[in-house]
């Protein structure tokens, strides 16, 4: 009985040491954000994100280094969007406010996928009406296409007369950290509180 108890205790100690090693050493060679992730990307998160060159509300050409200066919630949409984009961007703005209440500073960014209608002033006004911190960005058709491809988004203009047309597009919001790039995406059904909690996890782990 004593031998059995000794063996059981030994196994428990070895298991505990193994857990401590994994937590302190094993995690170093793995994903530092593993405890925060709720989504999976085929090939890893490195498949999404990268350098961006766009145009801000003042008509100035800017890069991601200019506007991703702190944790950022990045969304691709368009100002003429009748329902989805306003709801999604307001949700993102609400999450930013929840995070601010918890002591985290996060920037919401809106990138148009409709540069034909969304001038610098249009995206600037749209962003300002949603949240005082929101940055609105546009660009040439080539710049928007490149940005969309960088974040693996989808958009397609639908037939319509004159300027009255809709644009089909994906609706993910991307969390980007200055020193790490893209780390997570959020679906439309995620609430502001849920998004804030998840963002805080990534920020704390960075």
UniProtKB/TrEMBL annotation:
UniProt cross-references to Pfam families, sorted A to Z: SCO1-SenC
Signal peptide stretch: none
InterPro entries, per database record: SCO1/SenC, Thioredoxin-like_sf
Stated family: Belongs to the SCO1/2 family.
Name this protein carries in UniProt: SCO family protein
Organism this protein belongs to: Tropicibacter oceani
